[in-house]
Amino acid sequence: MIDLATWNLSVPVGNPPATIDTPRLVSGFKDQYFHSNTGTLFFWSPVTGSKTENAIYPRTELRETYSNGTLRNWTYPDADNLLYATLAVNQVPSSGKIVIGQIHAYNSTKPLVKVEYQYKTSKLSGNIVAKVRMRPDDKEGRVITIAENVKLDREFSYLIHLSRSGTLSISAAGYQWDNKISATWRDKPLYFKAGVYVQDNTGYTSEGGKVTFYKLDIDHNKG
Predict the structure, then answer these.
(1) Integer distance in angstroms from the first to the last C-alpha of the chain?
(2) Which pLDDT score is estimated for 198?
(3) What are the start-end ranges of the E strands in the chain?
(4) How confident is the model at residue 1, as a pLDDT?
(5) If you ran DSSP here, which 8-state letter would residue 181 be given?
(6) What is the percent of the chain where pLDDT is above 70?
(7) What is the mean pLDDT of residues 132-140?
(8) Which of the residues 58, 64, 77, 133 could staple to 12 if both were Cys, CB 3.0 to 4.6 A apart?
(9) For residue 23, what is the enclosing H or E element?
């Protein structure tokens, strides 16, 4: 059973989109966009869904919190910070792209990391791509292909690890990349996100991103 006690949930309905707080999520919240009643987490975000402020695409996505629902933000020198997930991508929009995990920066539109599944129709499979801002003020992220030929409905794992020394390691589907980020990130409040953030906003209501998570865990190891 996946522990939801460190997350809240944004769903792409309403204006602004609804946020399901941590206690309500833990008590068994479910709707057409999210449920956890099989021990796994099901996420669905149509391309026609409503969008959060400053976003151009819709999402059904978890955001890191404390168990009482307060938003959790952290700075990387304080701990070894890990987000681990096992999942399968079940559907993609016509762009082929969905974000499945992030390290986001608080009060910023520029995340440190986005882990993206990019489906190629010609190959009938997708790549796992990381978009990394080595510095907070980088306009565009550096694009790194972590893994290739990951089919729809295939179960795979990813790990995002940001050490207290500033080494960022991203592994997915058995492959790994790591590098040192700029120390200018040191004092920036950060937080993890996971779910389905579709990189598309046009099409029918049946078009979108659908993902099933089998494992999802956060660790901030201070030892």
Answers:
(1) 26
(2) 98
(3) 7-11, 18-20, 34-35, 41-46, 59-64, 80-91, 97-105, 113-120, 125-132, 142-150, 156-162, 167-172, 175-180, 190-198, 208-221
(4) 82
(5) P
(6) 100
(7) 95
(8) 58
(9) helix 22-26
Residue the block writes with tokens 């995990």:
101
Rounded CA separation 144/135 (Å): 16
In sequence order, the 6+-apart residues with CB closer than 8 A to the CB of 64 are 6, 7, 71, 72, 73, 191, 192, 193, 218
Place of tokens 């769903």: 11
Q: Side-chain half-sphere of 87: how many Cα atoms within 13 Å?
A: 29
Partners of residue 103 on adjacent β-strands: 113, 192
Cα–Cα distances in Å, from 7 out to 41, 140, 196?
12, 27, 14
- CATH (residue range 7-221): 2.60.120.200
Question: CA–CA separation, 133 vs 181, rounded Å?
Answer: 8
Percent of the chain with pLDDT over 90: 95
Q: 29: which 2 tokens?
A: 């919240």
Structural domain spans, the chain: 7-221
Measured in degrees and rounded to the nearest 5, phi and psi for residue 37 equal -80, 0
pLDDT for position 88: 98
Kindly report, residue by residue over 63-117, the tens digit of the pLDDT: 999 999 999 999 999 999 999 999 999 999 999 999 999 999 999 999 999 999 9
Rounded Cα distance, 12 and 185, in Å: 30
Residue 181 has φ and ψ, to the nearest 5°, of -85, 165
